[in-house]
Amino acid sequence: QVQLVESGGGLVQAGGSLRLSCAASGRASNSYVMGWFRQAPGKERLFVAAITWTSNTLYADSVKGRFTISRDNAKNTVYLQMNSLKPEDTAVYYCTATRLYRSGSFYPNDYEYWGQGTQVTVSS
Fold it and tell me: Higher model confidence: residue 28 or residue 117?
């Protein structure tokens, strides 16, 4: 079992930056693929980024060049640095983890564990 706790969300103006953190605890959690999804009101949960335990990364096209995912295995923490934020980035951001797909996955059903989510609001 892995527990995930996100932090770092908030309100920011368009063009600004935020950094989300996700602290993982539990057995061998630093060997999991870690990822971030987001969900806007009334919409489906969408992939944002993922990182393997060897720090290979995947990104959604909508965030490439603006967001950076990273991890500190010693701290069992994954980060999402979000720059050049846009109003359409507004959503609840969820941290997630899986052992099922070592290269990561774009699909939420492929992830085993989820955090409670943190709200990111970008004003225009």
Answer: 117
